[in-house]
Design goal:
365 residues, alpha/beta, Rossmann fold, eight-stranded mixed sheet, elongated, five-stranded parallel sheet, single chain
Length: 365
Amino acid sequence: MSQLPPSSARSVLARTADPRLADDLQRLAAAAGVPLTVRPDLPDAREIEGCPLLVVGGDLAAGTARQLARRASPRPERVPVLLVTNDLDDADVWQHAVALGAEQVVVLPDGQDWLVDRLAATVEPMGAARVVAVVGGCGGAGASVLAAALAVTAADTGHQVLLADLDPLGPGADLTLGVVDVPGLRWPDLAAARGRLPGGSVREALPRLDDLAVLTFGRGQPVDLAPRVVDAVLAAAVRTHDLVVLDLPRSGDPAAVAALAHASELLVVVPARLRATAAAAALLTGWGQLAPATRAVVRRSSRDPLAAHTVADALGLRLALQMRDDPGLDQALRRSQAPGLRARSPLRLAAEQWLAQREVPGRAA
């Protein structure tokens, strides 16, 4: 895996004289991407005040509580404390936790996943981005350009956005957005990722179009993405973005299925034609059971015989959006102008309508 930018976070302080516990804490901090300083002595008040989290080992919990109580300047209340132990038989652990004012007692190894998340939260908050997936009900439906327009429009209104392209055989979101030559990591660079990734570092490492980060396969040989890679990357993305837009392949490969598990909504883009509706119905026999909410986006031209509600009803879906064909889209793409940038274009209007009907975390201008 290509190198992610290093973290510049302040170090978490840990106090323990137990070598095994110290090793466990260093290992878990590394998994969280958080710097950790372990020492047997009690840091002074200024050091504690400057740290984001104080971790106290069960072996020194009683002594730490007494020392803090004797200090003229007690531990600042805004500095949280965890009591971490690997001794299941310590009957006094809760008493020590109360004396320390600890927010949580963590018993290892059972609590290690929780501890990794808590450590990581010192450098990035536990965010909750809205995640929407977009898939074409048939070939050429326009799913990729709608996904791009949703991402571009949300970024234009002040949101931190990631567009994740999971179709290895598609044209590529970098080409659609005109960022092919922008340096940054692509999916092949992250193919060895596992465990918890630092969300901020992932975002900073990706190609960007202003507030829009783009993750795509690039121009090289396609790679088979393992579901665990997709899970790790999207879990990191959710913590550091307001909106994550997934551009999914119609094939429903394991990586796409793993990505869809992160989404709260699946938009199926369908032209208002009979054959396209039939193709979308076949696709939904697999895809439709995988998302909490699956809705239709119907694209119509003046020549299409079916009404948008007729298409949605035939598919058994609620109608999320209907949009006109965009006659200026091909010319805009040839000029490397991203979908959704042109004011009053059908794609921009559809994206604005979708955003107006959804709650997206973060700042909107």
